[in-house]
Amino acid sequence: MVRFPCVGKAPDYYLAYFGIRQPAKVGLDLPAEGRFRVESIDTWEMKMEVASEGLSGRCEIALVGKPFMAIRITKSADSA
After folding, report:
1. Model pLDDT for residues 26-77, shown as the tens digit of each residue
2. Which CATH code is given to the segment(s) 6-79?
3. Nearest to 59 by CA among 26, 35, 17, 22
Protein backbone atom coordinates (compact mmCIF):
# COMPACT_ATOMS: atom_id res chain seq x y z
CA MET A 1 0.00 0.00 0.00
CA VAL A 2 1.24 3.48 -0.84
CA ARG A 3 1.73 5.98 2.00
CA PHE A 4 1.29 9.64 1.15
CA PRO A 5 0.96 12.99 2.92
CA CYS A 6 -2.58 14.20 3.36
CA VAL A 7 -4.17 17.42 4.64
CA GLY A 8 -7.77 18.14 5.49
CA LYS A 9 -10.42 18.73 8.11
CA ALA A 10 -11.16 15.35 9.66
CA PRO A 11 -13.54 13.64 9.30
CA ASP A 12 -15.13 15.61 6.45
CA TYR A 13 -12.46 16.54 3.89
CA TYR A 14 -9.02 15.30 2.82
CA LEU A 15 -6.63 16.26 0.02
CA ALA A 16 -3.55 14.31 -1.07
CA TYR A 17 -1.04 15.25 -3.78
CA PHE A 18 1.23 12.56 -5.21
CA GLY A 19 3.79 14.74 -7.02
CA ILE A 20 6.12 12.70 -9.21
CA ARG A 21 4.89 9.40 -7.74
CA GLN A 22 2.53 7.50 -10.02
CA PRO A 23 0.48 5.06 -7.93
CA ALA A 24 -1.93 2.88 -9.91
CA LYS A 25 -3.88 2.23 -6.71
CA VAL A 26 -4.05 3.73 -3.24
CA GLY A 27 -5.13 2.18 0.04
CA LEU A 28 -7.24 4.39 2.27
CA ASP A 29 -8.19 4.11 5.93
CA LEU A 30 -11.30 6.27 6.14
CA PRO A 31 -13.49 6.78 9.21
CA ALA A 32 -16.01 3.94 9.62
CA GLU A 33 -18.80 6.43 10.32
CA GLY A 34 -20.23 7.90 7.14
CA ARG A 35 -19.66 7.39 3.43
CA PHE A 36 -17.00 9.12 1.35
CA ARG A 37 -16.48 10.16 -2.26
CA VAL A 38 -13.02 10.11 -3.85
CA GLU A 39 -12.24 12.32 -6.84
CA SER A 40 -9.03 12.21 -8.84
CA ILE A 41 -7.55 15.57 -9.84
CA ASP A 42 -5.32 15.89 -12.89
CA THR A 43 -3.33 19.03 -12.05
CA TRP A 44 -1.89 19.37 -15.57
CA GLU A 45 -5.12 18.98 -17.52
CA MET A 46 -7.16 20.75 -14.79
CA LYS A 47 -9.77 17.96 -14.76
CA MET A 48 -11.53 16.14 -11.95
CA GLU A 49 -13.42 12.87 -12.10
CA VAL A 50 -15.07 10.64 -9.54
CA ALA A 51 -12.83 7.66 -8.75
CA SER A 52 -15.19 6.00 -6.27
CA GLU A 53 -18.22 6.70 -4.06
CA GLY A 54 -19.83 5.21 -0.97
CA LEU A 55 -16.54 4.29 0.70
CA SER A 56 -15.81 3.86 4.41
CA GLY A 57 -13.20 2.12 6.55
CA ARG A 58 -10.27 0.41 4.83
CA CYS A 59 -10.54 0.41 1.06
CA GLU A 60 -8.46 0.59 -2.09
CA ILE A 61 -9.10 2.76 -5.15
CA ALA A 62 -7.64 2.59 -8.64
CA LEU A 63 -5.88 5.64 -10.08
CA VAL A 64 -4.63 6.45 -13.57
CA GLY A 65 -0.93 6.09 -12.69
CA LYS A 66 0.17 9.51 -13.99
CA PRO A 67 2.53 11.91 -12.21
CA PHE A 68 1.28 15.11 -10.54
CA MET A 69 -2.15 13.73 -9.65
CA ALA A 70 -4.10 14.44 -6.48
CA ILE A 71 -7.20 13.02 -4.81
CA ARG A 72 -9.93 14.81 -2.91
CA ILE A 73 -11.93 12.82 -0.37
CA THR A 74 -15.19 14.30 0.88
CA LYS A 75 -17.79 13.00 3.28
CA SER A 76 -21.16 12.52 1.58
CA ALA A 77 -23.82 15.00 2.67
CA ASP A 78 -26.32 12.20 3.34
CA SER A 79 -23.99 10.57 5.90
CA ALA A 80 -23.84 13.50 8.34
Report:
1. 999 999 999 999 999 999 999 999 999 999 999 999 999 999 999 999 999 8
2. 2.60.40.3950
3. 26
